[in-house]
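Morning!

As promised:
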Amino acid sequence: MAANTGQGRSFATFLVGLTMACVGIAYLSTGLGKLTAVVGVAILLVSLLGFLKIKPLEGKPAQKAGSTAMKLVGAFIATFGWLLTLVGLHVTDSVGGRIVLALLGIAVTLFGIVYILPAAYNKNAIWKT
Amino acid sequence: MRLIRSGCLCLCILALGLSISAVAYCQAAAPAAAPAATPPPPSASAAELKDAAAKAPSTADLQKGDPGGTITGTINDVPPADSKVGVTLPDVANQVGQNKIAINFTWTLIAGFLVMFMQAGFAMVESGLCRVKNANHTYMMNFLVYGCGLLAYWLIGFAIQMGGAAGNANLGGLQTLSSEHPLALFGKTWGIFGGSGMFLSGHTYDVGVMVIFLFEMVFMDTALTIVTGACAERWKFLTFAVSSVLMGAFTYPLFGNWAWGAGWLSQLGTNVGLGKGYCDFAGSGVVHAVGGITALAVTLIIGPRIGKFNRDGSSNAIIGHDISAVLIGCFILAFGWFGFNPGSTLGASANGNLRIGSIAVNTMLAGCTGTFGAILYMWCLKGKPDASMSGNGLLAGLVAITAPSGFVSTVGAAIIGLVAGVLVCLSCAFIENVMKVDDPVGAISVHGTNGLWGVLSVGLFADGTSNYGGSWNGVTGSVTGLFYGDASQLAAQLVGISTLLGFVFTFSFLLNLGLEFFLGQRVSAETEVAGLDLPEMGQLGYPEFVFRQESDIFSHTPREFAIA
């Protein structure tokens, strides 16, 4: 079905919701600001539901769902590597130690991004069938 | 055999790099000349000002015309506060101050206009590297991303990024951007996100804020448009639009704040003594790595194009439809980069800002050596000086020099660009053959991999000669890398790289995983095979072209020239 009026309307609703939410945040200290923020978030949720409703009309893409658990594990490992680097800033004061821990953190993150996540997506890849 | 040839080539490049480094060392070892004695500053008195006013050309003189430009611009052009008293010393001083800010405003705005024009370059490169059946869709993504990003940045993104970035004397102080939300951790205070500047209203309705908004906004849009290239030929237009709005509103501004908006990465120097904090002069990390890494996250979710990989995992080169557009687009980008890097001084008239000449030359050189790196790699190993990879080599060199351009010598810039040119070829092959990720334009390698290399290279090649007002990120002294004696700067850069990979990637991945649930990221298989122009945009990019069968195109793909 591709692009259609439903998509256009939902996107317009999304933009209106985001704008109202931002106006509300900008004036959050006032009562009217709080109300506007709540209305904006509500409109954003309506737009997301609109997206969800028209999603099946698009047709089937040329891809198969991979392992969700593995995707989340990959994302977790990527974040864990970053946290390792941050903790490394505080466990040692030496520049050498911080460099080693930063490199270790980067290696762990790359393991998640380069190995785990592609494996999760390529496990049931459509080009393998 | 291929490994041996690659190794030999890398050794040659390493030897070339070492030779250039030796030249640089010899230059650095030469004794500095003693500073010349400066004459005492001339004094100005009210009598001298009156004398100057008396000698200034009269209206009658000016009515004769000034073909030589010798009598235009005199004391008569300085507006006096009190016309009865005439021009006084405070009037002159105020005019000098305003001239300084005017020069910096003009410089920054024109640099921003150049960066804005890079959108045209990106559109041409990305569309040229895609098939003709997707040309309209790819051009339209590059067109709409400008509006999506601008709107989101005006609504909230700018406030998150620059809302606490007060203190830039080049642009008049920007004192209204004074709301950085901190987090106290391990006995230190770290900036997390800004708060002033939503809608550019209230007290941020300020001339200096408008200038910094325009400049930062076009940078943000550059990051957004990188993603459209990696996801071209199968990204649903609606999802692209929503994803771009969210990236312009949250993903880019958050990292931008941490690096440029008084956030915690810029405080690594003041808080934990790591060099001058995370240093990214013009955005190898903030702009290019954020764009490239987000592109990787979305491309993983969206999957490869139909026909890209065979059942055995080998890949097919899917050739773009217009190499002339690609190469002209690369030149437009290289032109725009003169706004990107020299413009990042945010002024031409302030202490240390005359380094803009050096920054511009570094930018040219790195682009040049990047092109050579990629051309020679492809020519020596694949037999042909591949055009698209040459273009990517130019862009890789430019991306890599973006962060260190303000801190390194020309020799350092040449080495950084050369490494980037080779790195982009290796990275493209790795991402395609090992990770099985389909990136039609090489955006992940050009901007992601080389953005990270650029960030790292600051920690290696910064030569300690730059002086932007005597300090950087609140730490006195000049940015100095490992090769010039400061290992702690390298540590700060590594923390930045870890944040780009660990935080930006994960944040983008989870955000787009959410969009996959609500909207779906990819068009249907039927749409993809037909080409996205008609189903998604309702109009062909080139209606008078005759399409060949896909199978026909694949059978004519010169596999030996492919990077795979």
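The beta strands of chain B are 180-185, 188-194, 471-472, 475-476.

Hope this helps with the figure draft.
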